[in-house]
UniProtKB/TrEMBL annotation:
Zinc-finger as UniProt keyword: no
Coiled-coil region list: none
Protein name: Fibronectin type-III domain-containing protein
Pfam name, any one: fn3
Bias-annotated ranges (Low complexity): 131-141
PROSITE patterns the UniProt entry points to: FN3
PANTHER family linked: FIBRONECTIN TYPE-III DOMAIN-CONTAINING PROTEIN, TENASCIN
This protein's UniProt keywords: Repeat
Region (Disordered): 131-157
């Protein structure tokens, strides 16, 4: 917090027994008369206190609009209304968390246009004060436009990019205008992601899995993609594991060194210091891929 102190008022009088007047009014910001500051007048202190009280006293928040409701829907619009707030200078409307109006709305109704047909939207409204500050959000109101839902593109190019004994990595081509995808394993949805790749983990070894992905836009899910099938690797056996020093692992090209630490080849797991005294049991899951047992 920055406080700007008021300038003192120059005076040639001697008040309250002050030994000297303060004719220049310089540096007398705490409100004392006399160059020896022997008597307190209170003018500057009173002004400073008012200023501090205003800064630290907070403000009265503007009331929250109430009873927001959907009054009408069409194929591409949703109309809203709400109760007025007496101290409001205007209102802002939010759709799915984003502000939709340009200039502040002066009334208590609003029609949001250019929406997708057959789609669901959630709205809130905030009151705006004369200084431009907003209230907290009102209750939410959900409206679904009429008509058929727009076609959502189907992802293409789904491939398996990597497999281990307990994981499968997938990748697919992006769909224009889509930021959410659903991933399916054996016909069951396992997750939603914003990227065009996904790694499914905690799988069983030596097991067949089928995968599909779909696009989601405005809560509408499109058709599932083509199916890809893959088999996780068999689990490690005793013959696939090597319980040796980290130096020996590096020499056998099962690991590598970085900044004095040893990392398993492929999985990049940290095996500890690069030392003859540091032993690690490494198991091979596939060519050039080792994990700590």
């Amino acid at each position: 917090m920055i406080i700007l102190y008021p300038q003192t008022v120059a005076t040639t009088s001697i008040s309250g027994g002050a030994s000297l007047p303060n004719s220049n009014g310089c540096w007398d910001w705490i409100g004392w008369y006399g160059t020896d500051f022997s008597v307190k007048s209170g003018k500057q202190l009173a002004a400073m206190k008012k200023m501090i009280d205003r800064i630290t006293g907070g403000f009265n928040p503007i009331n929250i609009p109430k009873e927001l409701q959907v009054t009408a829907v069409t194929d591409n619009s949703v109309s809203l209304s709400w109760k007025p707030v007496s101290s409001a200078h205007g209102y802002n409307v939010y759709r799915n968390g984003g502000k939709v109006n340009g200039a502040t709305i002066s009334g208590t109704t609003f029609t949001d246009s250019n929406l997708n047909s057959g789609s669901t939207y959630t709205f809130t409204v905030k009151a705006v004060s004369s200084s431009g500050s907003e209230s907290s959000a009102s209750n939410s109101a959900t409206g679904k436009t009429t008509g058929e839902s727009p076609a959502v593109g189907t992802p293409s190019g789904l491939i398996v990019t990597d497999t281990t004994s307990n994981s499968v990595a997938l990748k697919w081509d992006s769909v224009p205008g889509i930021t959410t995808y659903n991933a399916y394993r054996n016909g069951n949805k396992v997750t939603s992601v914003s990227a065009t790749s996904y790694t499914d983990t905690d799988l069983n070894s030596a097991t067949d899995y089928q995968y599909q992905v779909s696009s989601v836009k405005d809560s509408v899910e499109g058709d599932k993609s083509m199916t890809v099938t893959t088999t996780t690797l068999a689990g490690s056996t005793d013959n696939d594991c090597y319980d040796e020093s980290n130096v020996a692992h590096v020499a056998a090209l099962r690991a590598y060194v970085s900044f004095g630490y040893t990392f398993a080849l492929g999985s990049n797991q940290n095996m500890g210091l690069y030392s003859m005294l540091q032993k690690t049991n490494l198991c091979k899951e596939k060519d050039f891929y080792y994990v700590i047992a």
